[in-house]
Specification:
Blueprint (H helix, E strand, L loop, with lengths): L1 H36 L1 H5 L15 E8 L3 H12 L6 E8 L3 H13 L3 E6 L9 H11 L4 E4 L4 E3 L4 H8 L5 E3 L2 E4 L5 H21 L12 E4 H6 L15 H6 L5 E3 L7 E4 L4 H11 L8 H27 L2 H28 L9 H16 L12
Parallel strand pairs: 1-2, 1-4, 2-3, 6-9, 7-10
Antiparallel strand pairs: 4-8, 5-10, 6-8
């Protein structure tokens, strides 16, 4: 080591030492994220916490349907109505004026005594916001535990309600995972999946430590008494935020229960085309600017340290002696092995499989895609809560 150090000092002075120090520091930052922060998700077990409430609470599942969504009728609603749980109901809030579609919903409700149906809208000149619809759904619900999902989403298990209900035994705010689903198994869709998995990985890594800032729109819940005591949704000046900004205000470490299981995963269908997908993730990501600074820093530090590690390592590979080049190459290989090992285990916990073989592509390209998403000016987003 002394010989290598003297060689560096002789040929590259302190600049070479500084470069190697940067490479090592960034390596350990990456090691912290993938071997410690993210790996907490894999090791997390809700059952280790003390149970605070009665087991098997009755649950109200609330979903807002806007317009004539045939996919909801044929694919999504049947899954919600055929969950293996004894004490639950499905509350459907329909926003629209189509008589035939509403009749179909009524016919389904007549066959399921535990389905509640409410209609809003009908006047095209009066826009009904999702916030208003959620408020109506909450008031219509007869149970204390409220579980929310959306159209365009599908629980992967018929025991979804059963497993999410366990969260209410440990807290007043319940959060579960979601996985992005695409029709085509293409490279572009793989990259989209990885970008969204990484965003969820960041969120869940914070949530399991009791530092909540985001939950999937299709898989979260809270108690009615907590909602009433906090006077309902806030941040009314923006179009979204029910699943992050509002929950940030109420999801303290004591109240929060994160439920990670293959039975709690919800598939969420996302746009296939790049432009539509970018608009989708930018729209729902426009609240990030309102997150606490510590949460934004946590998300961005991994991406920044990854890019800087690549740049500094490549620079060292170009300008440093052979011994240092081999050492840096070894660090890059070790980092990648740790990243893949962590991502494989955490990805399975979050519902993602088959990600390893092409992960190196996301590892390099991912920060660019995330930068493109983050460069969007959220001030251009319409200020209507839809």
């Amino acid at each position: 080591m002394a010989q290598i150090f003297n060689e560096i000092l002789q040929h590259y002075t302190w600049a070479g030492i500084a470069l190697m120090a940067v490479v090592l520091i960034l390596f350990f930052v990456q090691l912290y994220y993938y071997a410690i922060a993210y790996y907490r998700i894999y090791r997390f077990r809700l059952m280790r916490r003390k149970r605070r409430n009665e087991p098997n609470p009755p649950v109200s599942v609330i979903v807002v349907v806007r317009g004539e969504n045939e996919h909801f009728l044929t694919d999504e609603l049947p899954v919600l109505l055929n969950q293996k749980y004894d004490h639950y109901e499905v509350v459907v809030v329909y926003i629209g004026g189509d008589v035939e579609y509403y009749d179909e919903l009524q016919n389904i409700r007549n066959n399921y005594s535990y389905m509640r149906l409410t209609k809003m809208g009908g006047n095209e000149r009066i826009y009904i916001t999702t916030k208003q619809a959620l408020n109506v759904g909450i008031k219509s619900a007869q149970y204390e535990a409220l579980l929310f999902t959306t159209t365009g989403a599908l629980p992967k298990s018929e025991e979804w309600v059963s497993y999410m209900a366990k969260g209410f035994e440990y807290g007043e705010v319940v959060v579960g995972p979601s996985v992005a689903t695409y029709e085509q198994n293409s490279m572009k869709n793989y990259l989209k999946r990885m970008v969204e998995m990484h965003a969820l990985r960041n969120a869940m890594a914070s949530a399991v430590r009791g530092k909540f800032y985001y939950a999937p729109r299709c898989n979260y819940g809270f108690t009615k008494s907590l909602y009433n005591s906090t006077k309902g949704y806030n941040h009314l000046g923006i179009d979204i935020g029910d699943n992050d900004l509002y929950l940030q205000d109420i999801a303290t470490a004591e109240r929060l229960a994160v439920v990670l299981s293959p039975h709690t995963i919800v598939e969420e269908y996302h746009p296939e085309e790049w432009r539509e997908w970018l608009e989708h993730v930018r729209y729902y990501g426009s609240t990030v600017a309102r997150y606490p600074a510590s949460r934004r820093t946590f998300m961005r530090r991994e991406r920044g340290s990854r890019v800087l590690f690549f740049l500094s390592a490549i620079t060292a590979m170009v300008v440093m002696p052979l011994e240092i080049k081999l050492g840096v190459a070894g660090l890059m290989l070790l980092r990648y092995m740790i990243v893949v090992w962590s991502s494989l285990r955490v990805g399975r916990k979050l519902g993602e499989r088959g990600i390893v073989s092409k992960y190196w592509i996301y590892d390099v390209v991912g920060p660019v895609i995330e930068w493109i998403i983050g460069s969007h000016d959220s001030r251009n987003t319409p200020k209507i809560w839809r």
